[in-house]
Amino acid sequence: MTSNRLRVALQKSGRLAIESQKLLKTCGIKFNINEQRLIVHSDNLPIDILRVRDDDIPGLVMDGVVDIGIVGENVLVEEQLERQIYNKPASYTKIRQLDFGYCRLSLAVPAEFDYQQPNSLSNLRIATTYPNLLKQFMQNKDIAYQDCILKGSVEVAPRAGLADAICDLVSTGATLEANGLKETEIIFKSKACIIQSPATQPDEKQLLIDTIMSRVNGVIQAKE
Ligand code: PRT
Ligand code: ZN
User: Fold this and answer.
1) What number of other Cβ atoms are within 10 A of residue 181's Cβ?
2) Are 47 and 149 in a shared domain?
3) Could you tell me if the CB of 174 is within 6 A of ligand 1?
4) What distance in angstroms lies between residue 166's CA and the mean position of ligand 2's atoms?
5) Which of 21, 23, 32, 208 is deepest in the core (most CB within 10 A)?
6) Reported ipTM
């Protein structure tokens, strides 16, 4: 399935959606989002924008279904680790780090938990949406644990009796506090980035990517 148009994957809605659209628009790519539509054609350049769940973006890039994507490094590295287990295509090129989507993946425990070091979690159950990043951290420290993989509501897992601790994204820390949890260890720092597929072939597409990237660099430098 090759197309001469550059395919760009963005988060449809959520924390990265508005900033991602704004960045492309500031780079001179004209388009109008129709909430109902998955694909949006640019009005002035040979670019198609695909609006998807953020979790699908790394795989679409790694499989060469789209040329570039904007996604959080947390989702990107988690998907890469997952694909490596199953020998699926897992390569990409990070062509730009962006200045939004800042967060950290952290371990957190109930406020009354006597936490000294990661070892304090030995043989306990940890709820997370990021099992592979958690596994990488715990294996590096040689700590045995069990996981409880949840797609949402991770922060309520300890109170609900599903887990002893959690490994979840944190930005201000307000969600942890509201759930009686304390952050004990940062295991991964993340921000949004632009990734490119190893499969992007025709020269015209690469030229267009280079043009967009030089505009992105200009936009970001102007803000600094
Ligand atoms: O529907 P879709 O699957 O596309 O979206 P999503 O619900 O999976 O993701 P979304 O939109 O919530 O987040 C998209 C990306 O934004 C994440 O993958 C991160 O890269 C980045 N990001 C930045 C965050 C946060 N900050 C963040 N605070 N993603 C999630 N959170 C959540 C966190 O999970 C926790 O529930 O916010 C809560 C904590 O926030 P604080 O401020 O209370 O600490
Ligand atoms: Zn998601």
Assistant:
1) 26
2) no
3) yes
4) 18
5) 23
6) 0.99
Q: Which atom of ligand 1 is nearest to the CA of 54?
A: 4
Q: Is 191 in the pocket of ligand 1 (CB under 6 A)?
A: no
Looking at residue 84, which CATH number applies to its domain?
A: 3.40.190.10
Closest CA to 67 of 197, 171, 185: 197
Residue with tokens 């993946």: 105
Ligand 1 neighbour 190 (Cβ under 6 A): yes
Sequence-distant (6+) residues with CB within 8 A of 15 are 101
Strand order from edge to edge, sheet including 125-128: 146-149, 125-128, 165-170, 103-110, 181-190
The C-alpha atoms of residue 183 and residue 211 are separated, in whole angstroms, by: 42
Evaluate whether residue 27 is within a structural domain: yes
Q: How many domains in the chain?
A: 2
93-131 pLDDT per residue, tens: 999 999 999 999 999 999 999 999 999 999 999 999 999
pTM: 0.97
